[in-house]
Amino acid sequence: MTPSPVFKRIVLKLSGEVLMGNQPFGIAPEVLPTLAAEIAEVHGLGVETAIVIGGGNIIRGIAAKEQGLERVTGDYMGMLATVINALALQDALEKRGCYTRVLTAVEMREVAEPFIRRRAIRHLEKGRVVIFAAGTGNPFFTTDSAAALRASEIHADALFKATKVDGLYTADPVREVGATLLKTASYQYLLEHSIKIMDAAAVSLCQNAKIPIRIFNIRVPGNVRRVVLGEDVGSTVS
Q1: How do beta strands 213-217 and 158-163 pair?
Q2: Is it the case that residue 200 has pLDDT exceeding 80?
Q3: Strand, coil or helix: what is 53?
């Protein structure tokens, strides 16, 4: 008997860095098919799946500022980078047989649909994977904030934060040997301890909308499916 998902509608937040694989930048050709297969498997379980993707594998607004560009200009460049990633992921998903729509917060009708909340919900109800690109459409906001905002707007059951670590730690596990994995935490804990797994605006949005955040390692094959099925993977913020 096939196990049943515990979530009906999710928003999966992917960083642009996930697409790099072992490359220093760009999109690794071997990553997209693997990622698309995992998403298609979850979608095949009947889960309405929306995705927010970052652009850090191409450019980040903050990094652009360090290179001498104005922060606002860098942020808009970052938004365009997320559209590139969204189109690449759309192509990989449709090769897997998943009908997919890219909706952008910055209008570019020739390549994607503009974000309209009701249209996004309708696509999900019709069984399409929806990829939200271009962040919130505004500078100074991260794609984490965009993911929390979209999750609130479409009434998602959970926000999945896919990372390169196993969950929520008390400190950066890469830099601090004594960092401890927390299986559960409150929104307030994240805000009070300034844990960098998500920015404060994103956490506050999820808190206000009562949307749980599931944090897990996307580099472990099958983890997206495990979390959807309610297995004890990663960490839960609620």
Answers
A1: parallel
A2: yes
A3: strand
| Domain carrying residue 201 | 9-237
C-alpha of 189 from chain center: 21
For residue 16, what is the DSSP state?
A: G
C-beta atoms surrounding 139 within 10 Å: 16
User: Mind listing the pLDDT tens digit for each residue in 162-197?
Assistant: 999 899 998 887 778 788 999 999 999 999 987 888
* In contact, 48 and 125? CB cutoff 8 Å: yes
User: DSSP H helical segments within 25-170, as ranges?
Assistant: 31-44, 61-66, 71-95, 117-125, 143-153
Percent of the chain surpassing pLDDT 90: 82
Which tens digit of pLDDT belongs to each residue from 18-56?
999 888 889 998 999 999 999 999 999 999 999 999 999
CA neighbor of 89 nearest in space, from 39, 128, 161, 156: 39
Number of domains present in the structure of the chain: 1
Say if 1 falls within a structural domain: no
Residue 157 counted as domain residue: yes
Name the nearest CA neighbour of 40 among 220, 217, 225.
225
